[in-house]
Amino acid sequence: MKRFVLPTLALAISLLLAPPLLAADRTVTILHVSDTHSHLDATGSRDRSLEGTVGGIAKTSTVIAAARAKDPEALLLHAGDVLQGDFFFNFMYGVPELQWMAAMRFDAMAVGNHEFDPGPDALAGILAQGFAEGSVPLLSANAGNLGGLAPFVFPSILKTASGVTVGIFGLTVPDDPMCQNGSVTLDPDFVAIASQQAAALRASGAEIVVLLSHLGLSYDTAVAEGVEGVDVIVGGHDHYLLEEPVEVRSPAGRRVLIVQAGPHFANVGRLRLALRGGRVHLASYDLLPVDDRVRPDASVQAMVSGLKGMIEEALGPVFSREVGVARRDLPILPRERSPWKDTPTGNLVTDAFRTVGQTDIAFTSTGFLSEGISKGPLVPADLFRVVSYGLDPETGFGFGLVTSELSAEALVMVLEIGVAGPGPEDAFFPHVSGIRFAYDTRKTPLERVSLESIRVGGEPLDPGRTYTLTTNAAVAMFLVDMLGVPLSNVAPIPGAFEYTALLGQVEGMGGVVDPRAEGRVRDLAPVHGHPAARPHSGLSH
């Protein structure tokens, strides 16, 4: 027996002398969503009773509760754009979803560009109702001159989860052309700000530093590559669905993880981090689907049903009346592995505009299409979500439609501006009706459109002719006031909105909704890095 004493004693001593090598990792779980855009009710493909099957806060409540049952101290984060995108926002201004977030004990939310859609002063009032006494802190370290938003918006916070101190700071995209931030400033030097925030949080004891970002993947990557001290970026803004974390190396070579869970409550991201020897490691990552397999929380669903009833009292059966059936999923970005071109949803929308305006041409852009259409039965609310931007307080609808006139030269200018960006994800990428044209992304911006390819109503472009155009009011304003395009005789179409035009178009299709890409917009460049090849489900909004 004595011969076993010394080895056993040696083993005991070695365990005592080397605890760091064998100590258990401390693990932190982060649950996250983004770009939920007032989608309180389930959407996606509808069942036979016209109920949505994907997302919605009742199903999301169930998914979050199940995740917390496994990780009671999990942090729950929202990467911004809670507001705007559904009838619920246009009638309740975001208060119900904020109250739901407070009840679900969200730990923090980034300030998204669409949080400013009501304007900063109105946003402060909405937050006062939804987030009583700042129950969910909003984070934006590059937001300044906050005014009445100051009690709700902070650069950063410190949280403790599973015994680990986690520092979280926020950033808001500074250059979105649709952001109605008014007097609030959004500093574009987000790399320098991120460096300052990460250092300050480390100095305050943060063992893990998280950027809660509403910048988009491209800017998130710039932060990860340019800043030391950030471990994780929980992102939003461009509606990407990243099935695995994107790994980027910091200036010192440390790994930074970037995650996005996609829009509209379709998934809840679950990131598990292991803290070991002062280093943060990926323990696991998965997406928790919020789909037809999830049973909705009954009390939350009852609240949502009550809100739907209030909206239908004002608008009629916008959630409960079938107006058509989509033969296929209709995206707002091209998916084919081919040169960039027009999309089914863009064609459907602009055809609707041209029908109402009775003009030669209709135009909208990617940035004004908020989402696509799911296969299956359609109710009016599904169509509203496609063109949900803007707010007409009297009707609860979005942007109104206007007609105008423009010369052939001005028309070419509009097309050149539309294709000057990097591709269909660009906010001003064109969707058109009544016109076809080709362009070449290999050429210099504003020199890309092939004049010989332009056909209006099937006829070549006539340099001496004046053409008529239907757009929404915001596009017309951008063209004239911001881009200097000479439109004349700009006039609203009485009682015509993007939504009502699209609804009328679908109802006039005999119940079958099956638009196709037709080559209305066609890139002459060969196949290249296409949006469909990237892990995403939408675009920057």
Poorly predicted runs: 1-22, 529-540
The CATH superfamily of the largest domain is known as Metallo-dependent phosphatases
Percent range of helical residues: 25-40%
Oligomer: single chain
Major beta sheet summary: 7 strands, mixed
Radius of gyration: 25 Å
3D architecture notes:
The chain is built from 14 helices and 29 strands. It is 28% helix and 26% strand. With 541 residues, the protein is α/β, with parallel strands linked by helices. It is globular and about 75 Å long.
Q: TL;DR?
A:
This protein has 541 residues and is an alpha/beta fold. It is 28% helix and 26% strand. It has two domains: 23-289, 4-Layer Sandwich (Purple Acid Phosphatase, chain A, domain 2); 321-533, 5'-Nucleotidase, C-terminal domain (5'-nucleotidase,  domain 2), CATH 3.90.780.
Features:
single chain; 2 domains; 541 residues; 5'-nucleotidase,  domain 2; 7-stranded mixed sheet; disordered N terminus; alpha/beta; Purple Acid Phosphatase, chain A, domain 2; 14 helices
Topology (elements, then pairings):
Layout: H1 5-17, H2 19-22, E1 26-33, E2 43-46, E3 52-54, H3 57-70, E4 75-78, H4 87-92, H5 95-103, E5 108-110, H6 120-130, E6 138-139, E7 143-144, E8 153-154, E9 156-161, E10 164-172, E11 185-186, H7 190-203, E12 208-214, H8 217-226, E13 232-234, E14 246-249, E15 255-259, E16 267-276, E17 279-289, H9 298-315, E18 324-326, H10 344-357, E19 361-365, E20 376-378, H11 380-386, E21 400-407, H12 408-418, E22 430-433, E23 435-439, E24 455-456, E25 459-460, E26 466-472, H13 473-482, E27 488-497, H14 498-507, E28 512-513, E29 521-523
Parallel strand pairs: 1-4, 4-5, 5-6, 6-8, 10-12, 12-13, 13-15, 18-28, 19-26, 23-29
Antiparallel strand pairs: 1-16, 2-3, 7-11, 9-10, 14-15, 16-17, 18-20, 19-22, 21-26, 21-27, 23-24, 24-25
Helix pairs in contact: 3-9, 5-6, 10-14, 11-14
